[in-house]
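Incident log, structure service

09:12 report received: a user says their structure output differs between two submissions of the same chain.
09:20 pulled the input from the user's history:
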Amino acid sequence: MKRRSILKGVSALAPVAFWQPSALIGQMETSYRASLDHFDKLDAASMNEEDFWSLIREAYSCSPSIINFNNGGVSPQPRVVQEAVEFYNRLANEAPSYYMWRVIDQGREPLREKLARISGCSAEEIAINRNSSEALETIIFGLRLKAGDEVVLSKQDYPNMINAWKQRAHRDGIVLKWVNLELPSEDDGYLTESYMKQFTNKTRVVHLTHIINWNGQALPVAKIASEAKKRGYEVLVDAAHSFAHLPFRFDELGVDYLGTSLHKWLSAPFGSGLLYVRKEKINNLYPLLAAADPDSADIRKFENLGTRSFAIEQAISNAVDFYERIGAQRKYERLYSMQKYWSDKVKDHPKIKINHPLNKSHSGAIGNFLIEGKTAEEISIKLFDQYKIHTVAIHWENIHGVRVTPNVYSTHAELDKFINAVIKIAES
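09:34 re-ran on a clean worker, output below:
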């Protein structure tokens, strides 16, 4: 590892080469260099794993007074991404219709290539949008289903997606077949069979949530998808919490459609997302917002949003650079280890119940716990009011507890404070 190698190049703005001169470009390059100066101060020869993660923490603008353990809702952006958003926005405001449409928008195709590289699919299968809900509702409302067709989904799926399917059922007469999972589970057989029990000769689509946001349960998506594909069903995946969290490739899952939010685990700007559609499925999927040719096989038909935030879209590129400097496997190992660290310290307490899987094959950063005799709201409020630790109370279909979600910038010192706080609350 050489000096500056951890995040060197993260500041590079790929489209700069074709931009017309602007004073802002020079100013922004100076700002980027300043934001990375602290990396030069560390002797690479003495760097160990914790030194590396200390540098990553320095790359974020963490609150000095609040410990944020609700990264499952939305992740903060590292400074380099924040600065990119500000830069693109200021540049666009110099002459909006020129810089937005003729200059900044030209960076979309290079960005599509970068996203494809970390996703494990073709760039011609990726559309850039605003969040998981937009991506998944494009699929849900775009599938050519008819009255009587059945869709298999679970009660533990995300509410926006459940509501979209319910609207589709109300409007078009499709039939929803519900899986009700008892979680946590580390039994792939049980999880797979729970979906297969709902398969019939009328099944057309299977909806899977890769990581269930309520408690961090990872489903064996590839196994369930394999059973569905054997029977000719289409499979869509909600990857809001698995993308840039679990180390996987789209082509390994064997699914037809996928949607994710980039402002979660990729730490991209708020309001950025990705839609994946298998190439041969594009022409038969209607876009959510009208395109000139709804039967087109071009993935870009799903990007007819009109005027949008070019700053947010283009700064995704800097988030990808940051993610790649860490590395997918290294990031996952850190995230899982943070969850395991606190789980192991409290799991044997007689009053504390763990609501998430503990083994590595079914979990990552997201955890959930409950204290006997106390409500999730009571625990979450005490954690914040007394210890300034931000978590969230969860109540959803068989899952009741406090969700705890550290991130790559979280520290063991913060986790130790959390562990001590939980034990004190349990014993109070």
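09:41 both user submissions now match this output. Likely a transient worker issue. Closing.
09:42 reviewer note: Residues 349 and 397 are 25 Å apart (CA to CA). The chain has 14 helices and 15 strands.
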